[in-house]
Amino acid sequence: MKNAYITKISKFLPNSPVENDQIEDKLGFIDGQKSRAKSIILRNNKIKKRYYAIDENGNVTHNNAQLTAAAIEELCDANFSKDQIELLSCGTSTPDQLLPSHAAMVHGELKNGNMEINSASGVCCSGMNALKYGYMAIKVGQVNNAVCTGSEKVSTWTKADFYQEEIEHLKALEENPMIAFDKDFLRWMLSDGSGAMLVENEPKGDTPLKIEWMEGFSYAFEMETCMYAGGEKLENGELKPWSEFAPEDWAKKSVFAIKQDVKLLGENILKKGVDCLKEVYEKHGIGPDDVDYYLPHISSYFFKQGLYDEMKDRGVEMPWEKWFLNLEHVGNVGAASIYLMLEELVASGKLKKGDRILLHVPESARFSYTYAYLTVC
């Protein structure tokens, strides 16, 4: 088996950062009114800046494939061109279309010749799953390099126009024209952007990171759906897909809006995460003492203290000085978040040879978790 190294990391964040008081100017006011939930959610998540692929006039500046291709272009220099990519592996929660696959559309943007492509679906773990596919392809010697990406284009999914027909439908029924909290919640949480990693079979570059191992877990066998789009959650916990709704109901019920069962999230996301973290530690014979930098993808700073407390209560406390987060000034970029965190850590110049990095990515869709353990070469 060969070794796999992350030799370069890049990012692309579209347009200028959007401050908290600018969000509704960008996304629009639902029914012309300010959100009642906005201030509460922003106070808890502590996000101050995020990025949208929308210009000053509300026009789309980039689709998801273009965001991803832009990050990949940032990987390229005199030593590595896009024509040298052997494998392209892309993960996202928000592809531009149902078909073709996201990776196929990114490849179409790159226009760099024939190569293998892979698309990882899902939510936040899709970016890590894209990385794992590239990691495994290099481990078995199928390719010498892989470009792996995580990206999101969520702004158009959360614009006010997306909910307008539902509001009009509620008014026609003489019901309260207010978007449910499970839909409004995520409008103040999510951000656009992309990250890319070049993974190679040799430790090249200024700060190569050896991928020691990657592990994934799913609790879908015992947990109902928590975060979803393209469906509606029923009272019995089952998810009714968009294809089983009449077309006229897609807009009336905002079927394609991103939603989250906030109660289910709060009760389970941390507990399940520490359950499998302990399994990872036991399997690989390591613990918090074997980690120099801990990069957890958290959707909100609301969960930061809770995650620390859960680990402490379960005997795997991670000291605060090992945590590295950038949520406050980048936003929650879903599948791209872990790429953006690692890129910022490498660019900080803090890393030294021998440092050990633990990546921890949860996904609330149906409670999945992915981990990666890296060492600085």
TrEMBL record:
Biological process according to GO: secondary metabolite biosynthetic process
Alphabetized PANTHER family for the sequence: 3-OXOACYL-[ACYL-CARRIER-PROTEIN] SYNTHASE 3, BETA-KETOACYL-[ACYL-CARRIER-PROTEIN] SYNTHASE III
Domain of life the protein comes from: Bacteria
Record protein name field: 3-oxoacyl-[acyl-carrier-protein] synthase III
Key words, A-Z: Acyltransferase, Transferase
Species this chain originates from: Zobellia galactanivorans (strain DSM 12802 / CCUG 47099 / CIP 106680 / NCIMB 13871 / Dsij)
EC number: 2.3.1.41
CDD domains: init_cond_enzymes (cd00827)
Gene transcribed to yield this protein: darB
Gene Ontology molecular function, alphabetical: 3-oxoacyl-[acyl-carrier-protein] synthase activity
Cross-referenced Pfam families: ACP_syn_III_C
Ranges of residues in domain Beta-ketoacyl-[acyl-carrier-protein] synthase III C-terminal: 282-359
